[in-house]
Amino acid sequence: MKAVLLVSHGSRSSKTKEEVADLARILKLKTGVKIFEFAFLEIEKPTIPDGLDLCVRKGATEVMVLLNFLNSGRHVNDDIPAIVRGAQSRYPQVRFAISPPIGQHERIADLFVDLIQHA
Asked: Could you read off the pLDDT of 42-74 as tens digits, one per residue?
């Protein structure tokens, strides 16, 4: 069974957690993915390892780590892959994958144009 773990940086602002939780709910509805969780790299909970564990406990045989990060950097290139490798060693029967950061998506420019036009 496929699972998605939406991963964000984390913030001390409670509004950020609410926004991420809302985004996860919307994406779950729009995709129909039954196991759809969210987690944070730092500051906020649940942590990424906790989120990965939860997905597996719910029956995931594959987990897509969906990066809610705009660009590459230390977290995207090093920290998150290291956490996912740790989960892979704990759950060798589960397939893990990590999306590119959203700034690399081919339609990101269109999103920014929309924001500019409606500002």
From this structure: 999 999 999 999 999 999 999 999 999 999 999
pTM above 0.85, yes or no: yes
User: 8: left (phi > 0), else alpha (psi -120 to 50), else beta?
Assistant: beta
Using alpha carbons only, how large is the chain's radius of gyration in Å?
Answer: 15
- Would you give the end-to-end CA distance of the chain in angstroms? 41
Q: Rounded to an integer, what distance in angstroms lies between the CA atom of residue 48 and that of residue 21?
A: 14
Closest CA to 67 of 57, 56, 53, 77: 77
Q: Is the dihedral of CA 50, 55, 61, 64 positive or negative?
A: negative
Q: Which two tokens stand for residue 26?
A: 């919307």
- Domains in the chain with CATH codes: 2-117 (3.40.50.1400)
Question: Does an H or E element contain 50, and which?
Answer: helix 48-57
